[in-house]
Amino acid sequence: MRNDLKELIDIKERYLELSKGVLDYDKFNQYAITHHSTVIEGSTLSLEETFILLDKGLTPNNRPLEHSLMATDHLKALKLIIEWAKSKKILESKDIRELSATIMKGTGSKISTMAGDFDSSKGDFRKATVRNEDRIFMDQAKVPGEVDRLMRELSSTINGKKDFVGSNLLAFDIHFQMVSIHPFADGNGRLSRLLMNYVQLFHGHPMTVVFPEDRRQYFDALENTRRGEDISIFRNFMLNQAKKYFEREIGILSKEQKRSKSKDRGISFIF
Predict the structure, then answer these.
(1) What are the residue positions of the site described as Important for autoinhibition of adenylyltransferase activity (predicted)?
(2) Is the pLDDT of residue 98 over 80?
(3) Is 193 labelled a binding residue?
């Protein structure tokens, strides 16, 4: 495990070096993170369509409007957690509700249940039981207290996790715990991944994504962690996602650098 972490840190440093000074890198990285997270939740937009939508405001044809709204709202939520992390804001339960309202602004709705009405577009905690495949999440009456508890744990821990490994393990743990509480009617996955990114950014570390093609493994890692009561299962999955992300970005950035260096020599070949 120690050698794996050292390799991950080395790859991360290579990624940071290559991305340094690349024009608009952060902006387009945010677009990519938005694409990955919304596709996991069912968006049919391609990566190119997501980029055009977020950069030019052009809605793709022959795609559900809901999927475009998911992307634009996710980007706003991502910018919100970036702002919070940069300002070292310590999050409370009300901030989690604000984050959820931002994620669900265009796609949420008012929901009526026997326990009362709530509005998923306004960051209201759910007042109904939610189920995902074979998993029934905790009783809705426990949700406010569990979110408060998790935010207290985060506030008491985050300043002591400055190093790359410590910050990431905390980020993965918070991700797992929040999505396991499942405090809202919808958007819990997007919210939990954004909360993970907030923890990573708090001390200036790169954000991690979950790749859409690994969606099934992601859900399996969450469920196997719950059943086995072993957080290392989810941590290892996310560490592998981080490594995959850095390696993929290194490949893209290295190719771009080769193309830039070849421009002065005439024809530029991309392979």
Answers:
(1) 41
(2) yes
(3) yes
